[in-house]
Amino acid sequence: MTAWTRLVVGFLLPQLLVASPVPDAAPDSVKVEQRDDESVDYQSPPYYPTPHGGWVSDWAEAYEKAYQVVSNMTLAEKVNLTTGTGFFMGPCVGQTGSAPRFGVPNICLQDSPLGIRNSDHNTAFPPGITTGATFNKELMYERGVALGEESRGKGVNVQLGPAVGPLGRKPRGGRIWEGFGADPVLQAVGGAQTIKGMQSTGTIASMKHFIGNEQEMYRMSSIITKGYSSNIDDRTLHELYLWPFAEGIRAGVGSLMTAYNDVNSSACSQNSKLLNGIAKDELGFQGFILTDWLGHYSGVASALAGLDMCMPGDGAVPLFGDSYWGSELSRSILNGSVPVNRLNDMVTRIVATWYKFGQDKDYPLPNFSTNTQDETGPLYPGALFSPSGVVNQFVNVQADHNVTARAVAREAITLLKNDQGILPLRRNDSLKIFGSDAGGNSDGLNSCSDQGCDKGVLTMGWGSGTARLPYLITPQEAIANISKNAEFHITDSFPSDVTATSKDIALVFINADSGENYITVEGNPGDRTAAGLNAWHNGDDLVKAAAQKFSNVVVIVHTVGPILMEEWVDLKSVKAVVVAHLPGQEAGNSLTDVLFGDYSPSGHLPYSIPRSESDYPDSVSIINQPFGQIQDTYTEGLYVDYRHFINANITPRYPFGHGLSYTTFKFSNPTISEATALDSAYPPARPSKGSTPVYNDSIPSASEVSWSSTTFTRIWRYLYPYLDNPQSITASNDYPYPEGYNTTQPEPRAGGGQGGNPAIFKTAFTVQVQVTNNGARKGKAVLQLYVELPSSLGLDTPSLQLRQFEKTKELAPGQSETVTLEITRKDVSVWDVVAQDWKAPVNGEGVKLWIGQSVADLPIVCVVGGQCSFA
Ligand SMILES: *[C@@H]1O[C@H](CO)[C@@H](O)[C@H](O)[C@H]1NC(C)=O
Ligand SMILES: *[C@@H]1O[C@H](CO)[C@@H](O)[C@H](O)[C@H]1NC(C)=O
Ligand SMILES: *[C@@H]1O[C@H](CO)[C@@H](O)[C@H](O)[C@H]1NC(C)=O
Ligand SMILES: *[C@@H]1O[C@H](CO)[C@@H](O)[C@H](O)[C@H]1NC(C)=O
Ligand SMILES: *[C@@H]1O[C@H](CO)[C@@H](O)[C@H](O)[C@H]1NC(C)=O
Ligand SMILES: *[C@@H]1O[C@H](CO)[C@@H](O)[C@H](O)[C@H]1NC(C)=O
Ligand SMILES: *[C@@H]1O[C@H](CO)[C@@H](O)[C@H](O)[C@H]1NC(C)=O
Ligand SMILES: *[C@@H]1O[C@H](CO)[C@@H](O)[C@H](O)[C@H]1NC(C)=O
Ligand SMILES: *[C@@H]1O[C@H](CO)[C@@H](O)[C@H](O)[C@H]1NC(C)=O
Ligand SMILES: *[C@@H]1O[C@H](CO)[C@@H](O)[C@H](O)[C@H]1NC(C)=O
């Protein structure tokens, strides 16, 4: 498809017509339901003005450099850097205008969190959910480095990832596979490690989607409809959904992307409480905030609320050459409705971030096009009449990243069940392989745009969070390369003529897909509305048929998230279940690495596997209510995934964190020691802010944005900062600023550094455990630490919450490693909504730290102020 038809058919139509009800093919449509309006109690209070960036010492040098430049910029240059040039108006999925006088190029922003989207000679890494399942911090970092290197090599300034929201509140949610798992700490560690890795290469990471984007359907506002409102109470926001964002900011993330939806009936891209109050004040965010694509819904209001960049620049209806910002931002500066100091802060944040990651020195310009795979083509496809040139240089950025991609996919592989030690397979075992998920895409590699289909092995979900596969090693190819005794039936209907002997082992491949809302696959509009939590393509029937014929069945599952296994998991012949998550390009090799025993599996579930969908709270179902704004109220509060199952006394099929190995591990000598004393319930007072740049805040001369001052040839529909006759605009002195605009905010007591008050991140307790491989094969162990808080805090709190984890190195039989798990003040605190601060039990009294290999397997308990023992 051309860029144009892809835009219209693929993105705009579904977004604009999203008001039409999506057919609900779900047999148990109870999980796709309508809701009453519960918004009354959920409002977003105003929070103004925007705190200026530059007060954190880590960023001081970058802000000083930015100051030298921004103080000399004209209004046109400043507006240029805040506004995208328009949809399809450049090589990247979005780019800002430039400021050539200062060497600042059009800043290129490109998807995705798992590799460079719509490009070539790039690596298609496993997505977030797979990375989370490794529970391996070093690998998370290494993958981030590789991602950043590829972006840099293609000339991408800002890579649109990692995704740390959705958190996975809704098991049917379409994009839960882009994040790292249904727990704030797993999500936070995955996100922060990715950010650190990516940014070590000079690429700016963009953490998204801020916040509450837990379902795909009805996420977006347009001229016809309003996106849903995620109504989240303050404590739940802080203890669950905000936690990963706070850790990303603490890791120094350079940019933050807003979500499409509203929070408390105020759109995320113009919600002053979220942007000014929480991100920029409480969490001390120093980088810049941008919209999601076409998620910009107002001009003055979004600027005042703390937005710094709009993407791809277009206004309500894309490609008409208008914007809420661009020339309208110039106008609102000249007419006084956006204060000059707000624009100066916007631009300073952008330029400072560009300096912070060294992009002023030898950073490549884009050498690829997101719009076409041809070598030459229009430079601005959205312009209709555009100059042409070389748009793709086909630069190979893969280096040896396939090694990392394979390691992540391999270490994520989660063995749920292994009766009679049927795994690992021997190389001479007689194998019968079933399922289209073992093979390739029958229509060809990458034949579905943005991976919008489920054909062959499922390597990733669909939508903008994808990349083209440079090549794909299918399970079939990898198995065939190892086994001379394998018979393949790459079909989802069990063949009637297959013969079975008692020596045969049947490997049955099934999958479950989901993705972003602008593509519907097999009746699923992003969210799994039609498929529910079941395997696709009658996968349950395929397993059952194989289990009837063969006495040894191994089920291999590629899935975006929780999947139901009840129809077959207890069948006598189903001996093993392997969840290989979404493996990316190295699907086959990573799987055979484990199946044939070269490596022991060491992945653990990043969510629970339920017995029934009705085991979840009703409030986490997909809401289908096409008329009026959907009110999605988070009534389950903190009780999502395992927090809910434990609270409701429901035993899931497989608990969060579960994962077997081919070997076994013994834990010994657990110890706990105190690091920083928790001698008060609240942390020590925050430090005050450092200084921020001070500019001349007078309204600049209108001539700086006058078309008559320019000499270049204008490109039709391109977004510029210029106006005709701007001299006619006069500044009004009585512009109705939003309530509270004029006040100076007191510094929030929970703030004081990136991520919050630095005192909450000090290590409070250190736990050490000796891990010994007491089995017969080499392998890696994962230690998970869950906190149990005392009732003395007076708040209803989930009884177990993951707060730390570590993976050992590969231990040979008999070998030991001492693992250290550090717990901070924040880890044992609750969010006190009255004090607006983190509150811990004094001296940690009553806090218990549970350690083990899943939330349901915690043999060690350490009592703060006491000792560790075996429970
Ligand atoms: C949303 O409303 C709830 C309930 O009033 C409140 O606790 C919370 O702070 C609000 N959050 C935002 C971001 O406005
Ligand atoms: C602005 O530019 C001038 C020369 O072009 C330079 O000397 C000065 O340092 C720059 N910065 C400021 C803050 O004036
Ligand atoms: C604004 O950006 C455009 C490119 O997007 C560039 O052509 C123009 O020169 C820039 N304006 C200024 C004043 O730098
Ligand atoms: C100033 O311009 C902006 C952008 O066009 C507009 O939204 C706003 O209403 C104007 N304000 C005044 C006071 O004219
Ligand atoms: C493209 O990639 C090459 C190799 O990484 C790099 O040297 C170059 O600067 C990039 N950009 C352009 C516009 O050539
Ligand atoms: C991985 O990349 C290396 C270096 O580019 C290459 O030699 C090797 O063949 C690749 N592996 C696979 C499985 O394609
Ligand atoms: C595979 O080889 C082992 C010995 O190496 C033998 O015991 C076993 O029977 C063989 N299995 C098959 C299916 O041939
Ligand atoms: C096939 O297997 C051999 C030996 O295990 C290995 O060296 C080779 O890389 C494999 N080839 C592919 C394409 O995976
Ligand atoms: C501040 O900017 C205004 C408008 O450009 C200008 O008239 C004034 O001289 C500047 N003030 C200083 C102190 O530079
Ligand atoms: C701020 O308040 C002062 C005094 O009440 C008033 O004169 C001024 O116009 C206000 N400014 C804004 C931006 O509301």
Automatic annotation (TrEMBL):
Annotated SUPFAM superfamilies: (Trans)glycosidases, Beta-D-glucan exohydrolase, C-terminal domain
Stretches assigned to the Fibronectin type III-like domain: 781-855
Protein's name according to its UniProt entry: Probable beta-glucosidase F
Family annotation (Pfam families): Fn3-like, Glyco_hydro_3, Glyco_hydro_3_C
Gene Ontology biological-process annotations: cellulose catabolic process
Keyword Signal on entry: yes
Organism: Penicillium argentinense
Stretches the record annotates as Disordered: 26-46
Pathway(s) served: Glycan metabolism; cellulose degradation
Signal peptide bounds: 1-19
Single GO MF annotation: beta-glucosidase activity
PANTHER family associated with the record: BETA-GLUCOSIDASE (PTHR42715), BETA-GLUCOSIDASE F-RELATED (PTHR42715:SF2)
Domain of life of the native organism: Eukaryota
Keywords: Carbohydrate metabolism, Cellulose degradation, Glycoprotein, Glycosidase, Hydrolase, Polysaccharide degradation, Signal
Enzyme Commission number, as recorded: 3.2.1.21
InterPro entries referenced in this protein's UniProt entry, alphabetically: Cellulose_deg_GH3, Fn3-like, GH, Glyco_hydro_3_C, Glyco_hydro_3_C_sf, Glyco_hydro_3_N, Glyco_hydro_3_N_sf, Ig-like_fold
Protein family: Belongs to the glycosyl hydrolase 3 family.
Catalysed transformations (reactions): Hydrolysis of terminal, non-reducing beta-D-glucosyl residues with release of beta-D-glucose
Spans traversing the lipid bilayer: none
Gene3D superfamilies from the UniProt entry: Glycoside hydrolase family 3 C-terminal domain (3.40.50.1700), Glycoside hydrolase, family 3, N-terminal domain (3.20.20.300), Immunoglobulins (2.60.40.10)
EC main group: hydrolase
